[in-house]
Amino acid sequence: METFDALPAPVRQWMTHAALPWSPTSVRRIWSKSIARGLSNDEALALLARAETRTLARDRHATFFKLNSLS
Fold first, then answer.
1. For residue 58, what pLDDT band results from cuts at 50, 70 and 90?
2. With contact defined as beta carbons under 8 Å apart, do 35 and 44 qualify?
């Protein structure tokens, strides 16, 4: 919980609405790299959202092929 509490407020807010159960460590890593690259808070949050979208798409794709191989 301390790791979560140490995150910036916009990141904590994003995590509470995320579709996936992100770990604070993973989110902090993406956030820190984004800010170090000079991205704004909004751009860094958008990057987190894109990472989540890619993960969800990859998971759907893997599930589809797994289900088809069972047939």
1. confident
2. yes
Who contacts 7 (Cβ-Cβ below 8 Å, separation ≥6)?
15, 24, 27, 28, 31
Q: CA 34 → CA 44, 60, 70, distances in Å? A: 5, 26, 40
pTM for this predicted structure: 0.78
Per-residue pLDDT, averaged over 31-35, amounts to 97
What is d(CA 21, CA 38) in angstroms, rounded to the nearest whole number?
26
For residues 20 and 5, what is the distance between their CA atoms, to the nearest angstrom?
Answer: 18
Q: Tell me which H or E stretch contains 57.
A: helix 41-69
User: What percent of the chain has pLDDT above 90?
Assistant: 76
List the one residue out of 17, 16, 44, 9 whose CA is nearest residue 30. 44
